[in-house]
Amino acid sequence: MSAPAAAPAAGSPPTKHPRHLLDLADWSTAPIHALFDTTDVMAQVMTRTIKKVPALQGFTVGTMFFEDSTRTRLSFERAARAQSADVISFAAGGSSLAKGESLKDTIKTIDAMKADLYVVRHPAAGAPRQLTRWTDAIIVNAGDGRRAHPTQALLDAYTFKTRFPAFAGFEGVKLAIVGDVAHSRVARSNVELWTKLGAQVTLCGPRTLLPDELGATPGVTLTHHIEEAVEGAHAVMALRLQRERMASGLLPSLAEYRQRYQVTRALLRLAHPEAIVMHPGPMNRDLEIEGVLADDPRSVVEAQVANGVPVRMAVLYTLLVGSR
Ligand code: CP
After folding, report:
1. Burial 34-44 (b: 16+ CB within 10 A, else e)
2. First to last CA, the chain
3. Is 307 in the pocket of ligand 1 (CB under 6 A)?
4. Ligand 1 atom closest to the CA of 281, numbered from 1
């Protein structure tokens, strides 16, 4: 792979990006579209018999997960190795954190092993930004509390783009996000990204799971009625009901939640005729999403997971060598 990222055309907007990927607030649209272009190249690599290129040979990527993950951790590690980077992995379970080591001492310890970039998931909002003060390495946020999960939003938008090429510019697109918005970093990052790209986002859920302040973002509408959210939507994203983050009393009953907010095949009749159904995973089948809909041709849940690899390849490549 001699030139993974296409050279910008003369007169095109500058594609300079921030040094870290902590959230998408400080990423303008030009580097985001450039990242999607690089993802196209990486996706092509993943179709080859030998799914490996030397692009990141000599670099070391550290994955630091202070919270459980399947998709994000595995796909970042796959993305690093597919570009010939070395990978060191840290998971909080079984580490010296259990013996009382602080977050600062943990990053200093891992940093002594000389990684160039850390992928960090932490239950505390702001932890990845804090780490930028304690290491010279590049930091990529893999999910911090309920604040942000930028690579999930990037892979969601990329998946939409590949399924709806006519709307690849996102102008006029309607995304409905349904469920436990209050606890969702995925919802917050998708709001940040899709509105920046020009889409309209409708957030839907019960009063207790739909914070009013999210309605203050231009391009965002809030509703408690799922039919209103899904009407005309090009993409409907069901969010996991995060029972582990929820104080008791936020919902009268799971049965009522299922009846009022489950994304179903019947509801999709209200959406755009070619609408797709998304879920960031992990799914509670037959709770926030009808089980059979998750396996329906309109569901892109598996494509989201598959696209996580080339999107994260593009993120690693862009941050480590793309703009040097
Ligand atoms: N979507 C997502 O972040 O999944 P994991 O928790 O499995 O990484």
Report:
1. bbbebbebbbe
2. 17
3. no
4. 1
Contact predicate 67/143, CB 8 Å: yes
- With tokens 């239950």, the residue in question is 123
| pTM given for the model | 0.93
| 236 strand-pairing partners | 176, 277
Q: What's the full length of the chain, in residues? A: 324
Mean pLDDT in order along the chain per 10 residues (324 residues) = 45 76 96 97 97 97 94 98 96 74 87 93 96 96 97 98 92 96 96 97 95 94 98 97 70 86 97 97 95 97 98 98 71
Q: Each residue of 104-138: pLDDT tens digit?
A: 888 888 889 889 999 999 999 999 999 999 999 99
Residue 70, ligand 1, Cβ within 6 A: yes
Which tens digits make up the pLDDT trace of 221-261? 999 999 999 999 999 999 998 776 566 677 778 888 999 99
Query: In terms of DSSP H, where are the helices of the chain?
Result: 29-45, 71-81, 103-111, 127-132, 150-163, 185-197, 226-230, 254-261, 265-268, 291-294, 301-317
CB within 8 Å of 252: residues ≥ 6 apart:
none
Residue 280 to residue 278: CA distance in whole angstroms:
7
The verdict on the CB of residue 69 being under 6 Å from ligand 1 is yes
